[in-house]
Design goal:
four-stranded antiparallel β-sheet, rod-shaped, mainly alpha, disordered C terminus
């Protein structure tokens, strides 16, 4: 169906179009007048997403769409609606109870019925470019609509504060118990460290270890010196066994030197007496006896002096053994002291770890305690709702315009449907489509009018078709 055909149908059935359009506009206006007026009151709140100076949670101070969506869901939640009902004490009003009995038949809970009723008439719209949320409520009474909008805003502020404070109170109780347990653990660790220091006589583990290490180094030096003396004594003892009379101590001994001098004088006198008196003379025998006595004294003195070297060797060896034993004992003592120090360090680290854990939990307890006592939330009332002067619905002008558009659409559809059920020839194109034959000419309607912008029908000679069309007509 072409556009010209549609226009011809609408022109032929103009009365149907006007009738349907008039019915639509009239019905819309009548319904808009009959419907009860509804008033919409709007209050607004601003949500502050700045970092909390008390809480350790930081959101960067940015308005996140997810956060705004969360706040919108909170406002429209059942929890806020129940708080509105309880704040306004609606369940105590007989008129509300009577309305519940009439509409719900007393079934279910009065609070749940009110919550569902409020949620139907509530509208929450967040701002796109800011953190402002508009809370609107629609009711037949403008003052009731304003009161409900303000009640919703107040309930939302209280709920936001409650959602912030309740977790802090729960965490505060948890951290309070943890602080007590960690304090007991810290006391046990400190007591264990004190008992260990008292039992082992440790005041400062590092100082004691330094003293014992210095003593060990001193004994090591003494042992090295004694080993050198013992080595020297052994070499001198070997010299005594080989040629003791040529030792430096023997040669430098004044007694031995005097004895050697006396022996030399005695031997000289013995030779003189032997040459003068002979070997059997009593004076010669006496002189020989004196020389033998001096030699015996010399040997005895030499043995005594060389025996002192042996005694010195024994003393040095004994001192070396004693110092070596003391060194071994000191080394064992240093190792034991080091083990005690390491164990004490472990106990000290346990104390430090318990102290750090206690301090951290104590800090979190202080933070959560402050959060649980706060009376400020990140939600503030921006504007209060006031009773509107004009109803928000029904809107007569808007409804009329919509009815004109919908009425025209419905009228066109109605006219086309009527044409489909009662098809008539409205133009030459309809004849061609119905009969399958070309149109030779069109006669004007007797006494018909010419529409503006439209010429009169052409004559038959002017409407002759092309030769091919004439030939097809003859064949037909």
């Amino acid at each position: 169906m072409t556009f010209s055909q549609v226009l011809s149908i609408l022109r032929a059935r103009w009365w149907v179009v006007l009738l349907v359009l008039a019915l639509c506009i009239g019905a819309t206006v009548a319904v808009s007048v009959v419907l009860p007026k509804q008033y919409t009151a709007t209050a607004s709140v601003v949500v502050d997403f700045k970092p909390d100076p008390i809480s350790t949670i930081v959101n960067g101070g940015m308005t996140s769409p997810a956060m705004m969506a969360t706040q919108v869901d909170i406002i429209g939640s059942e929890r806020v609606a129940l708080r509105v009902v309880r704040n306004l004490r609606l369940t105590e009003q007989p008129a509300v109870r009577q309305q519940w009995q009439d509409e719900a038949g007393g079934e279910g809970s009065l609070e749940q019925w009110l919550v569902q009723l409020f949620q139907k008439n509530l509208e929450v719209l967040p701002s796109r470019e800011s953190s402002v949320i508009a809370v609107s409520y629609r009711a037949a009474d403008p003052r009731f609509a304003a009161a409900l909008a303000n009640a919703y805003v107040q309930a939302y502020v209280e709920t936001a504060l409650e959602l912030r404070v309740n977790p802090a109170r729960q965490y505060s109780g948890f951290f309070d118990g943890q602080v007590k347990d960690l304090r007991d653990a810290l006391d046990r660790a400190q007591t264990q460290l004190s008992n260990f220091q008292r039992d082992n006589g440790i005041v400062a583990g590092d100082e004691r270890l330094d003293v014992e290490t210095a003593r060990l180094n001193e004994l090591s030096s003494q042992l090295v010196a004694l080993q050198a003396l013992a080595s020297e004594s052994r070499s001198r003892q070997a010299q005594v066994a080989a040629s003791g009379d040529r030792m430096q101590e023997v040669l430098n001994n004044p007694v031995i030197a005097q004895l050697k001098s006396d022996i030399g004088r005695g031997e000289a006198r013995l030779q003189e007496l032997g040459a003068r008196l002979g070997d059997r003379h009593p004076q010669v025998l006496e002189a020989r006896a004196n020389v033998e006595s001096l030699r015996q004294r010399l040997e005895a003195e030499t043995r005594r002096v060389s025996g002192g070297v042996v005694v010195t060797q024994d003393i040095n060896v004994q001192r070396e053994r004693e110092v070596r034993a003391a060194l071994d004992a000191q080394r064992a003592k240093v190792l034991r002291t080091k083990a005690l120090r390491d164990q004490m360090l472990l106990l000290q680290r346990d104390v430090e770890g318990a102290q750090r854990a206690y301090d951290n939990v104590q800090l979190r307890l202080s933070q959560t305690s402050l959060e649980s006592q706060t009376q400020q939330s990140n939600v503030s009332v921006l504007t209060q709702a006031t009773p509107p002067l004009q109803p928000s619905s029904p809107k007569l002008l808007l409804n009329a315009l919509l009815s004109v558009f919908l009425g025209l659409l419905l009228a066109v559809v109605t006219a086309l449907l009527l044409e489909i059920y009662d098809r008539r020839v409205r133009s030459p194109i309809d004849v061609v489509q119905a009969l399958g034959l070309p149109v030779i000419g069109v006669l004007p309607r007797p006494g018909g009018r010419v529409w503006p912008g439209r010429s009169r029908p052409q004559t038959m000679q002017q409407r002759l078709l092309a030769p091919g069309a004439v030939a097809r007509a003859k064949e037909a």
